[in-house]
Specification:
2 copies of one chain form a homodimer. By secondary structure, chain A is α/β, with parallel strands linked by helices. Helix content of chain A is 45%, strand content 11%. The first copy, chain A, has a 7-stranded parallel beta sheet. Chains A, B: This is Uroporphyrinogen decarboxylase.
Chain lengths: 356, 356
């Protein structure tokens, strides 16, 4: 009989990181997008009186809010509490997050000159982020911290529309009518997203997730030609993986991306997030055997009765076996009205169903 | 040489109806969802001072607004100017359309009792509709009028959410948690949609379109089990096609339905509307050879430069050749900021590209 060496467990050996790399796991890892947020009473208490973008730049608040769901639910990963517009705000773009609305941009980007006038993100403005990540990594021990950044396209939609949008019509019109300005805008956003992620990895984040929430509003042809290269540039900006530079698992996420799944591997992601519209076994066929899948319970299912929740969780775990690796998650963020007890239950159920 | 009989051309012989039935056409027919509406200055002038739901019940306004885009653009079909919540409003449900928001329901449906309390739609309240349709058919001559109704699922989302929604979380929670009430609600909505369409066909509409705009938020499994039967009930409610009862082409439309396309034939539609996410040649494979396709230019393309518009129109016409028949349209409604001159140009270009 051999004895295991007495080294403390490390996030690099966690089920999350192993599943992301396609390695065998003890149990299917599970975390939830927006697990740190409004579904938790302790979050609402902590955030009271502090604006969202202020909270995201306060290392104490970021640390505590990021840890809350790990303590409460026993999820297999923490995700940095942040907002996709934060790198823009830190760089000096005038953006406010209006409760019940979303990010509102004071001077939307409508011309080439607007693009050129966007300030770049100086790494020395990210001390708050480095501090928060270092503290989190120390507190989390063997639990991995997933770094967070918004993808160039989704950030561009906010800058161009001036706020949240249903149709993203201005964004597409700009993309079609001003291809050079479009490219320059997305290149700049890719540079700042990479800067934002590098600081997180350099301070100990064990994986990164790029949120391209609205990529699914594009046709595959437009996505491939006008967006994908810029998302890839973000991941490439982490360094040369072959030489081991910041070689942490990379997760790509978007909603309504069914038609884009065959392309998403080219972004350079190890893990492709899938929403509830495409069953994971079908998603595995579209994405191909070289990627792990993340998802894909419909967040609205968590508002239903326990029987429905359990049935749907079982289905997702079962269909996830078709992928080379599966990270259980929702297909989009936790809805604010979700009962946190249900989230804890889902973590337990996924672990129980997938225990080797 | 034979001589054609001297009968006047009829909507039943129009390219729209022929394409919908999979018969040869002279040119690809083209119309636009929301062609009657805010993109037209003559519409904005006519609507000034009249609330949306009031306008939809005024036969003079309905007739004139429906005719405006036919006169201006030379489209191959008129679509009845209406709103998907109108049958509910006529039945007595308290709904207001708030400008910039959408339909707002005074007392949302949250319980079984709420479902049972919903008033049914009495056909004798639809005289305004019969009048408008008769006048339109007389005015339109050989140009077909497409009848209009909202599908049970999309109507249910407004009733349950109380208004427009991004996540449709309450709707799904109700669907999962209250399956019997859900079925009863959708059955009732199917009955009133069928009533609404029957009046239009009985007064001369040459085709009908069922708008299930938000069906794409559902997984295929949920759509098949909990929604599809009710959309089929609407079409079945038109009568027995085998016996020639109201045997007009039936169009089904929804946004983001890529995963649902293999199912949509089962709704009983002759024509399946497709948005810009799925190219029409791929959509033809998913829908199968027994249906005509309608779509699928991204409405945002119409905000771009002329070169982009022309390139994308050519692509859609080309890809549409893969279907047994093609009705050119947008993938969703005309955006209010669209230059009407571009719409006229698209009609001419589609006709030119498809002239036999």
């Amino acid at each position: 009989m051999s004895t295991a060496p007495a080294v403390p467990p490390s996030p690099a050996d966690s089920d999350l990181v192993r599943a992301a790399r396609g390695l065998p796991v003890d149990r299917t890892p599970v975390w939830f997008m927006r697990q740190a947020g409004r579904s938790l009473p302790e979050y609402r208490a902590l955030r009271a009186g502090t604006a969202m973008l202020q909270a995201c730049q306060d290392p104490d608040l970021v640390t505590e809010i990021t840890l809350q769901p790990v303590r409460r639910h026993g999820v297999d990963a923490a995700i940095l509490f942040s907002d996709i517009v934060l790198p823009l705000v830190v760089a000096g773009v005038d953006i406010e997050i209006k409760p019940g609305v979303g990010p509102v941009v004071a001077s939307p980007v409508r011309t080439v000159a607007d693009v050129d006038a966007l300030p770049g993100l100086e790494p020395d403005r990210l001390d708050f982020l480095a501090t928060a990540v270092r503290r989190l990594v120390a507190e989390l021990g063997p639990t991995p911290l997933i770094g967070f950044a918004g993808a160039p396209f989704t950030l561009a939609t906010y800058l161009i529309e001036g706020g949240p949008s249903k149709e993203h019509a201005r964004t597409k019109a700009f993309m079609y009518a001003e291809p050079e300005a479009w490219t320059r805008l997305l290149e700049r956003l890719a540079v700042s997203a990479a800067t934002f992620l590098r600081v997180q990895v350099d301070n100990g984040a064990s994986a990164v997730q790029l949120f391209d929430s609205w990529a699914g509003v594009l046709s595959a042809a437009d996505y491939a030609a006008r967006v994908l290269p810029h998302s890839r540039a973000v991941f490439d900006g982490l360094g040369d993986r072959e030489r081991g530079e910041r070689d942490v698992p990379r997760v790509h996420f978007g909603v309504g991306t069914g038609e884009l799944l065959p392309l998403l591997g080219d972004v350079g992601a190890d893990v492709v997030g899938v929403d509830w519209r495409v069953p994971l076994d079908e998603a595995a066929r579209r994405v191909g055997p070289q990627r792990t899948l993340q998802g894909n319970l419909d967040p609205a299912v968590l508002l239903a009765d326990r029987e429905t929740v359990d049935r749907e969780v079982r289905r997702v775990v079962e269909q996830g076996r078709a992928a080379r690796g599966h990270v259980f998650n929702l297909g989009h963020g936790v809805l604010p009205e979700t009962d946190p007890g249900v989230l804890t239950h889902v973590v337990e159920l996924v672990h129980e169903l997938s225990q080797r």
